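Collaborator request, handled under Task 6.
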Amino acid sequence: MNAFNNHFPKLESLLAGYSTVRRASVQPYHHAEYIKRHPDYQYDPSDLIIRESLLEHVGMLPVIAIYFHPYLETDVDLGKVLQLLAVHDIGEVTTGDIPVFKKQGDEGEQERLAALALLHPNYHQLYQEYTEIETSEAKFAKSIDKLAPDLYDVLTDREINCVRLARFTDNQPHEIPNLIRKHKSPYMEWNPFLKEFHDGLIERLGEIYGDKN
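Structure tokens returned to the collaborator:
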């Protein structure tokens, strides 16, 4: 019983944190289902109903990683990648989500310290591997983390994203493709397939938002 009594409250708190922390990204599938039930729904960026939760984000990344893995033409340990993805955003349970275009260096450090405080010391090295982005596994995991929100943006109504991007990133939609190139494309350079795929995503977003080069 001691194992249960000592660890259940901590585990429950962690599960609750992952489930209740909401990210800025819209969950397009929630939106589609909600519209079926409430056709008159008008999007408001403060509305949590169709916002992606941290748990949904972390849970979707392995699906994407497993899909892309056979196309990498690079030796990557998928099992290690899935471990890295499982812990990569654990700090957000404490700090919350900060969109990549607005995250400052000190905020990244706060998230890192929060992650190390939540993780058992046995997994500190795993988390460090992800943040240092030196191994092929860490590079793949980071790539997946960066491109996943862009997938959601392509799948989300333009009108919703226009409001969301202005609210959460202080940017106009036509600015986003170039910001993605600046902040995210470097993480794809290590692998030709991922670079080609992500370039296609940016091109599609440019068509949606009116990319102004």
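The cover message to the collaborator said: "The radius of gyration is 18 Å. The mean pLDDT is 92. Please let us know whether this matches your experimental observations."
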